[in-house]
Structures are given as structure tokens and as C-alpha cells.
Amino acid sequence: MGKVIGMRRNIRLTVSYDGTDYQGFQAQSHTDQTIQTQLEHAIYRLTGTKTSVIGSGRTDAGVHARGQVVNFYTDSSIPIERWALALNSLLPKDIVVTEAKAVSEDFHARKSARKKTYRYTINNRRFPDVLMRRYQYHVPVPLRLEPMEQALQLLVGEHDFTSFCSAKSTQASHVRTIYEARLAAEEDGVLHIYVTGNGFLYNMVRIIAGTIIEVGLGKRTVEDIRRLLELQDRTKSGITAPPHGLVLWEVFYDEE
User: Fold this and answer.
1) Which residue numbers delimit the Pseudouridine synthase I TruA alpha/beta domain (predicted)?
2) What per-residue confidence (pLDDT) applies to 51?
């Protein structure tokens, strides 16, 4: 569309993507197959200027998003109502901008975020669903739902989640607050674990999901969750559930 110069603006995008074919959200030097890089390329093609996209958080390789939020600064005077459609015409089909709006100069997709919700999906039927194989973790053994729900409730509140984050975590503190953790069961044997918190550690939701699945399988008890929080030892908790079942569901900000 060419370069159109106007007043510098801070633009916020809500983005959905199928993360199957990407090496995560964050740009990497050795590949263009990241969500951030694809967004930055599309913005460059649209405006003719390079910009850096700031995400609300990093999603790992293979993880999806329904409501990832990003922001970037631009001098382009393209009307805000044209941004979503214009970018979608330039993005791969597995990345879609669902909303674009101008925000205040100090809005920062990550620092301004107040809470996030992730959803982890489990197919608990006997056979996998070939049409949903990219978005569901297939567990063919029947899961006990009541203990899983009880175990999730023990995660609510402020805790040290060392037992539920990767040993590769570089965060100075592993204390986070979970506002809600719940299990939603569909009639067809599909289960969703929803976790809402003020922040998440590396692999945190996937480790929570893997551990809760083990509770459902009878390999762990509900009380084991309380003990894991106290132990603060990743080696004592459950598996890291595969990335394809995880979706960054929604990001919340003060103005909302």
C-alpha cells in the first residue's frame, strides 16, 4: 500500500494463530517462522517502515492463540479501521488479526497486562479426532473428573510455582497468583482446563495440565498438589503436556 507518513501512533492488535508450524511467538535469529517475525514483515510490507512488535507474552513452539495481544508504534496514517483487513491480506492464513485499535502512548502489551487466561484441551475419547489433532491432547484412558477439579482448586491463590515451571526458567521469582483454575467437560469427551493468573512461568500451564491429567489417571492424589506447591521441586511434578493442546485464550487490561 506504500508508505504514508502521519503522526506517530501506538497500535494494539488482537491476534489469533495456529502455532503448529511456528517456532513460537518470539523472533529468533535463525528462522522467520515465528509469529512476531511474520507480523513485523506484514507491517513492513503495509507501511514501508520497519517496526518492532511487542507481545503480551511468549508462546512456545506449537502453542496456539485465540487472543494474543501485541502493540507497535508507527508513523503511518492508514486509518485504524483498515489495519486488520490490510494485515490479514499480507499474513499467512494461520495468523489472523481480529482487532486493531489506537491506544495511548504508554500502552505496553506485556507490562500493561493485568491477567491472562490459558486453555488446555484434552480429548478423552477412545480414539483421536483426526480433524482436531492439532489442538487436542489425546488421552484414551478414562479420566476421573472430580479429583481433577479438586486438584485445580488447590492452585488458586498466590503460590511459589517452582514445581510447575521448567527447570530452564530464568525468572528471579516463581511466585504467581492464580485467580481461577477450572475444568470444563463437553458431552463428547473433550475436556478443557482453564487457568487465569497474573503471570505465567516457562511451561507452567503445560506442567499443570500434565500433573492434573495424572491426578485424573489415579497416578497422583489431590493432596499431592498441595505437597508439590510446598516442595518447590520440578522433578516431583508431572509431565509437561504437549504444546498442541495449549491456547493463549485471552489477555486482560485495566481499561477492560
Assistant:
1) 15-110, 151-254
2) 96
